[in-house]
Amino acid sequence: MLIIFASKAYSHSDHYKGLTKIEMDVVRNGEIIGYTNYYFEYGENKLYVKNYTKFKVELFGVSIFSIASESDERYENGKLISYKSITFQNDKEKFVNLKYDKSIEKFIIDGSSFKGKVDTDCIIGNWWNHKILKVGKQISPLSGSIKEQVVNFIGKENIVINNIKYSADHFKLKSKDENLPDEKKLNFDIWYNSKNNLILKVSYSKMGDWEYIIKNFE
Question: Global pTM?
């Protein structure tokens, strides 16, 4: 079952109305090493999403990989109008400045890996937004690069997180281009709970086994 729908960058923001935060643990090889947390604010026909992500991988007490990131995502009438992020990856700065240009109906991106105009049939690749399961392209939240993707429905599963049992839809999200180098490929397993419109867990393998697991939401 292939799931790729046309999108005009709608975030399904009505699905999240009243939600104030989503907190997720970042887990590597079974150990919690950090977090990615989303905070929601609302105005008239507006949604603001702030994200704070921080984690560190250490080997024998020495940091070998780290991320510290902040972002601000803004929507009006369900449409993405701006996104800004700054990230330090191993102390190297990455950034994204995105604005929606109404006159040409495109995103204008100034990022550390991409600069240019992009159609609005893609979204920011953040784990709060379940629309990521319904589009054919995502924008890197760290660098602004455009990544084409294919999403397949695997099946329904029951999973337990923090002693709570959830009914989840299991999806596989992969890069459309199978010839990409392994370090640039998308290859995620995603568990989504349609009752709460929440992504419960994301897993992938790259320099270890990683999971983003929902810890709390309000």
Answer: 0.90
